[in-house]
Each structure stands twice: as C-alpha cells, then as structure tokens.
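User: Hey, my collaborator sent me this sequence without any context and asked if I could get a structure. I don't really work with proteins. Can you help?
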Amino acid sequence: MKNRLEDLLSTLQAAATLEDLQTVLEELRDYYKVEHTVYHWVNSVGERYGAGTYSAEWVDRYLEKDYLRLDPVIFGCFQRFTPVSWKSLDWSSKPAREMWQDAIDHGLGNQGFTIPIRGPNGQFALFTMNATAADEDWDHFIDENTRDLMIIAHEFNKKALEFEQWGEDGNVPALSPRELASMSCLAKGMSRAQAAAELNISEHTLRVYIESARHKLGAMNTTHAVARALSTGIIII
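Assistant: No problem. I've predicted the 3D structure and written it out in structure-token form, which is a compact way to encode the shape of the chain:
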C-alpha cells in the first residue's frame, strides 16, 4: 500500500495539467477510502481554482447559496497554519448549521480534515479529505495519516505554483483549450454527462475545467460563465 502512495506522489509530481491533478485526487480518494478529496487554491492575484471529487450539484449549490462568505472551514483554516479537523470548528451559528445539513444532503460525509497551505505573494490553498466515520475512527485516521497528507498537500501546492508561473506569459489565452471546449459544449446545450462524453473525460474532470473557466471569467455560476464567454467572443457556437 505504501508503494501505491509513492506512485501517486510520483504521478502528482509529474502532473502537467489540471486533468492530471483531478486524476490524482480521485485516486487518493480511493486509496484512503474516503468520500471526497479536494484541493482548492487562490493564486497571488486572487483567482480561484479547484479540483476534487465533490459532486457538480454540491459545487453549484455552494456557489448559488454563497456559502463562501460563511463557511467555517474557510474561515477556520485562514486563521491557522496547522491541519484542522472540521469538528473543532465553530458550527454554532444557524447559517453554518444549515450549510452543514445542506452539505450532508448533497453527499458529503460527516467528518472533514483540511490542511491550510500558504505560498508566496499571498497564495493560499486548502487540501481536504471528507468521509463518513465515527469520531473515534476519524481521530485514528487523522493520527495515522497526517504526516503523509501534509506531504501530499504541499506537493499539490508546489504543482499549483508551477501552473501559476506557466500562466504568467502574456501570450497564454484567457482559457485553456480544454476549458474552451468544456464551455463550448455547455453553450451548445449539452448536459454535463453529454459534454464529458463528447470530450472523452469524466464528469469530475469536466467540472475542474468548468470551475477554472468560471473563476477566470469572474462569473457567479456556470450559466453566468457561459453567458460571459459568449458575450465576449471567447467561445462561438
């Protein structure tokens, strides 16, 4: 099993695209037998990117309800430098409790563990694992795996910083070819499942490209992102 983790780290270190990051996250989820793994970062100019295994429905719901402004995980981790177990955070407010129930209803487990990471020039990232487990079992999981998870989290961040450096060339288009293709499929009225099939990628990977494009376009949700891409001529159908 340890060799498998070393293989996943090697794959992560060799990643060249967001799709590669998504693949590693899916394999880490399966390796650790958890519900979800997520890596989310804000680069030095405030652009947000994310990859992970949350359902598209939950991501859209999170954005629709503007949970970012009250999420105890975001606020709790932004104030800390060490890993955080979600049950140690403040969920006492009614909006936070409602958000948590909404998350459970959308397939999240009852336990979470997030590692905050800080990079140069204000870069900030979170690496998260989410699972369904009893408190005692989850505490044991954290005790047993924290060291390896911190290594993995920082390797993800190193790769994200590499991606940011690649994007500093002014000749790089606003959206990558995969992002453009994903948005074009949605603009043509395809469902996520149809778009993923058209591009020969998984729906989770499709979501990575859609979310990346949405953040670059400064859109509130996917529909808004498609509208902006069409109105500015970034995509043409």
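In plain terms: The chain has two domains: 2-164, 177-232. You can pass these tokens on to your collaborator as they are.
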